[in-house]
Amino acid sequence: NTALLELDVLKTENERMKEMFGRIKTEKRVLASILVRPPRSLYDTLILDVGRESGVKIGDVIAVEDVVVGEIVDVAGLTSTAKLYSTPGEKLTVLLGHPTVEVEIEGRGGGMFRARMPKGSKIESGDLAVLPGLFSKIIARISNIESEPAGSFVMVTLSTPLNIAERAWVEIIGKAQN
């Protein structure tokens, strides 16, 4: 697929430019097995097999491949608890569309999010929602856009591009040092 090849080229070019300006990614990553997941755990939380003894801290980010799914909310010696960003009522600011616009998305549970945006926003199904920052992280993808009949807004439904219930492990990413 040509689009995937172009994406790889752009990704490599982007990383080289960041290195030229001294903005190298210095994240500490820890691999964690998922011990307990919904429905056995509280809704949209994961119990992981690493904790304080592995350097895990509250606020560390949880990712699967290149998709960020949540953050650490509790740490014990050998385990930790992660809350998924899609937890109902959780709010998160992301960049969305082309050109990007900052928007607040709200968790709806089960890897789903909603956002309300002005009509005419340059968004379309398939667009990615990413965390702002030099090293952007994917959160979700637009799966549906519904116009409010008499209003000047659209309701955007987003979903995590993976199913956490099918995963055996996650990466815990410590805060970047740059």
Describe what you observe in this structure.
It is a single chain. This protein has 178 residues and is mostly beta strands. It contains one helix and twelve strands, in the order αββββββββββββ. Helix content is 11%, strand content 44%. It has one helix at residues 2-20, and strands spanning 29-36, 45-48, 61-64, 67-75, 80-84, 91-96, 101-109, 112-118, 128-131, 137-147, 153-159, 169-173.
Element string (H = helix, E = strand): HEEEEEEEEEEEE
**Biggest sheet overview:** 6 strands, antiparallel, barrel
Radius of gyration, CA atoms, in whole angstroms: 17 Å
Question: In terms of structural class, how would the helical and strand content be classed?
Answer: mainly beta
Query: Whole-number average pLDDT?
Result: 85
Low-confidence stretches: none
Tally of alpha and pi helices = 1
Helicity range of the residues?
A: 10-25%
Termini separation (Å)?
34 Å
- Main sheet: which strands, in order across? 1-2-5-4-3-12
Strand content: 35-45%
- How many strand units? 12
Which oligomeric state applies?
single chain
Gross geometry:
globular
Brief write-up:
This protein is mainly beta.
Keywords:
single chain; 178 residues; mainly beta; six-stranded antiparallel barrel; 1 helix; globular
Blueprint of the fold:
Elements: H1 2-20, E1 29-36, E2 45-48, E3 61-64, E4 67-75, E5 80-84, E6 91-96, E7 101-109, E8 112-118, E9 128-131, E10 137-147, E11 153-159, E12 169-173
